[in-house]
Amino acid sequence: MDTQPDTALRPDPIDEPARRASERSQALDPKSPVARFSADTPLLTDAGIELAPFQIAYQTAGTLNAARSNAVLICHALTGDQYFAHTHPVTGKPGWWETLVGPGKPIDTDRYFVVCSNVIGSCMGSTGPASIDPATGRPYGLNFPLVTIRDMVRAQLMLLEHLGIHDLFLCIGGSMGGMQVLQWAALYPERVFAAMPIATGPRHSAQNIAFHEVGRQAIMADPAWADGRYLEAGTRPAKGLGVARMGAHITYLSEPALHRKFGRRFQGGSAPTFSFNADFQIESYLRHQGLSFVERFDANAYLYLTRAMDYFDLAEDHGGVLANAFRGTKTRFCVISFTSDWLFPTRDSRAIVHALNAAAAPVAFVEVESDKGHDAFLLDEPAMFSAARGFIDAAARARGL
Amino acid sequence: MDTQPDTALRPDPIDEPARRASERSQALDPKSPVARFSADTPLLTDAGIELAPFQIAYQTAGTLNAARSNAVLICHALTGDQYFAHTHPVTGKPGWWETLVGPGKPIDTDRYFVVCSNVIGSCMGSTGPASIDPATGRPYGLNFPLVTIRDMVRAQLMLLEHLGIHDLFLCIGGSMGGMQVLQWAALYPERVFAAMPIATGPRHSAQNIAFHEVGRQAIMADPAWADGRYLEAGTRPAKGLGVARMGAHITYLSEPALHRKFGRRFQGGSAPTFSFNADFQIESYLRHQGLSFVERFDANAYLYLTRAMDYFDLAEDHGGVLANAFRGTKTRFCVISFTSDWLFPTRDSRAIVHALNAAAAPVAFVEVESDKGHDAFLLDEPAMFSAARGFIDAAARARGL
């Protein structure tokens, strides 16, 4: 295992379509350090498959202290990645959580060593369906094993051990990242000093599964998807993935935010064109969201990660009783929800809090008043920042940091 | 104008693709009476196009009284049709509003003459994008003019005059049907004695436009859509239309209803299959909704009718003041909303009620407690039935029926 790019481990492409596919697969590779795990250290997935070899791409900020007690793990959301505080190599945009993380910020990189890794199954350098299957020399496609939130956490643990980190001062994340936080606290309570699940829930709701299924069907309906073999076919299921993103994007916002931002305003005029052009600003905005997403994300990875979220049901893994997931824990929790989040509404966070109460775990709960919907956790939300700062500072004092 | 099927008016198909297209176009034609309007009586649309000739398919129940004072117009929703109390010719299902309409029902066919016509732009016998353009002998496709809610109402008025009906005892409908009810009351107040807009709003919200746009993009992304020329191409954009329907269907329900009906239950077992099969019952249900919809609906008609809803903004048509749409009206209103309807939430109905109050119009407002979401207006909702019965009976007494 090393952290330098190393293409020598990849098998030689066996033919021209495979070479093209490999190039396309590489194209999404980030400029991140990578931890490689060989056939001797497979990832045993919930599906019962041993994934090996595999690699995890990550980014860090700050410095690990001598006691190795100041590590923070940030868990990213469905379409997020490890570029939490670093310019994104594809979009050129600032890190997605620079509002929260940095010198003097609530997650203070002058005090903490912050790690964020691309989840297993994604497409920004960690092994996923766009990676080359060593058994065939071609991209995995749908031969990649289904992964779960628990598999993501297991892979993160392997990365941390690779980095010489035994336990976390703080584990934090929103949405799918929050699911990972809960899974970390349930699976490795002794390794998590403080946990902050944001805008998330203990399981994916029927409605959320339904929205994900529509997105997956949109991708699979695109002939360019080619049964998942588009990298070899030299095609791009951009239309299907774009439609999936457009639909999902609506669920990340809120009706009041859409109304405030776009209302019924027309593009470049005050009258309808009586056509199917993007007459309304909201249409133009959504189309742009779809188009820009397909530039940075792999369609199969989208299938896999939505599936991982759908399967997440922490209570089900603990005899149907969510509190059982946290019995005896010493982890301290801060749970955050947003009033206008209808994808993971406050009642989901309350279910987490009630379970933590039942398990006698220390927990703070903040419902942030916001009209920005689910994506509020990624935005400038002063009430979230001050809750995070208060909780993290208190935890740091308790940890002697 | 006559009410018997008459294919002689259609131009001869000019070639083989046109003939095939014409057959497919006919295939969706219902077994309904049809009112035909010739080149002398065009429909002047909001887009500024004179549509002629055109036809309106309709169904009736009950008997028009001698005074012609007992006519009820039912306005159907986006994917509805004229089969409100008649077995559907494609699906074989009972009429979509048989719960509300029939002998002894709130809309009592022993007392009232009930009419429901397929809206202009749809695909169940009224002229729409799947109809043959007399100028070319081929289906209109996207050469069909964009129609608005107001155009639908104008065409309904022409139908009613054709049937010898000058004014309506009652105009009633849900969702897009409710938009037509509001438009009727605004456009022809002296012709509407009582109006019942249900689960609707005075304009389409940014979020609703967004959902529609995703559906349209899903259809247009399907190569089988063939730029709208699929009837001639002999293809069917079934996948795109299916995805559009799946996404829309989620918005017609509610999270509590989905949770109660499906929860996270697995198909035929208690464990995930770790695949992209329809593992969850909700996935299987949605796929079925998509598949069955494409059997009975035309993809281009879906584009046109969603667009008509998006354009609807009654206040905008009246100087930005909704109350201006109803000034001086003598129509009596009953507005109904459902607590779990998030597509047309109660606040939309309240906006209608406030405007009617400002216009000094007589209005009753009932918010029905229901967890069934937007589609509650189509379902067995006793509180809606009793509100409708009370309002309609009182109106009948006032009308001397």
UniProtKB/TrEMBL annotation, chains A, B:
It catalyses: L-homoserine + acetyl-CoA = O-acetyl-L-homoserine + CoA. One of its GO terms (molecular function) is homoserine O-acetyltransferase activity. The active site is at residues 175, 341, 374. Pathway: Amino-acid biosynthesis; L-methionine biosynthesis via de novo pathway; O-acetyl-L-homoserine from L-homoserine: step 1/1. Residues 12-23 have a biased composition (Basic and acidic residues). Residues 1-34 are annotated as: Disordered. It is an enzyme of class 2 (transferase). One of its GO terms (biological process) is methionine biosynthetic process. InterPro entries: AB_hydrolase_1, AB_hydrolase_fold, HAT_MetX-like. GO terms for cellular component: cytoplasm. Its EC number is 2.3.1.31. It holds the Pfam family Abhydrolase_1. Residues 70-379 form the AB hydrolase-1 domain. Homodimer. Transfers an acetyl group from acetyl-CoA to L-homoserine, forming acetyl-L-homoserine. This is Homoserine O-acetyltransferase. It comes from Methylobacterium oryzae CBMB20.
